[in-house]
Amino acid sequence: MTDLTATQQDLRSIRSSAGPWTLAVQSLRRDRPALLGLAIITVVVMMALFAPLLAPHDPLAQDLRSTKMPPAWREGGSWEHVLGTDRLGRDQLSRIIYGARVSVTVGLLGAGIALALGMLAGLLAGYFGGWLDSILMSVVNLLLAVPYLVLVIVVAALLGRSLLNVILLFGITASPLFARVTRGEVLRLRRSGYVESALCMGATGRRVIFDHIMPNLIGPLVTLATFEMSAMIFYEAGLGFLGLSVPPDVPSWGNLLAVGRESLMAGMPWLTTYPGLAIALTALGMNFFGDWLRDVLDPRLRRN
Length: 304
Known about the structure:
By secondary structure, the chain is an all-alpha fold. Helix content is 75%, strand content 0%. The chain is built from twelve helices and no strands.
């Protein structure tokens, strides 16, 4: 009995002495949905980074002798084109692999821009308050009052089809959400004991912001950015489906859906099925991983 108690105490001491990265890895290994989400994200990122090595064909190459070819396991299919071809004979698998580049770029850079702009506005509004808070939050509330998807479609139609335009559009229009979350966290942290102690000891506003407030913003903002990346992938696909995203000659999952829509009634459902699955699985993986991040980075929700 004494040996068992000592062993339990040793395990507790090891657990308490483990670093945050060790605890995070242990938590991730116990969370199967998070592991699945991480695996999906890893596959998509590898597709985006190594598309020229992974794609069996040039995504823009046309082969009029192989048009409208079904997937390899269906009658009339060929293993040379595993997921079939479109009306112009372009390989569907290669186009899906290259399409991951657009989705990853839009999600990563769009969420990064939104995070930077929103965190800056929220920090200034929450810490300094007064007229600056009123002006910044008035702009934020005005943008949030407009339905997000309507705003994105209108602005995308005005700016034209360009990858840069799509990234800037998502980054700017999503920043008010980050600003609201940042402002709320800053207002809460300003009333905390350690911030008031730092101010009483003569710490400057810059030191309080960078040393005491910003480190505590990383958790909620990174979690929010993960979910926003998932949403931006959906929105980019929607814009591509409407013909408002990247130019039509750029392989993207939204453009593939737009091409597949024209061929769906012609008996070629594979042109929409597999790009749709790529979008859904990527968003699902990011949501699974985001749920785990929220549990790990927010001590109020951390699992025992």
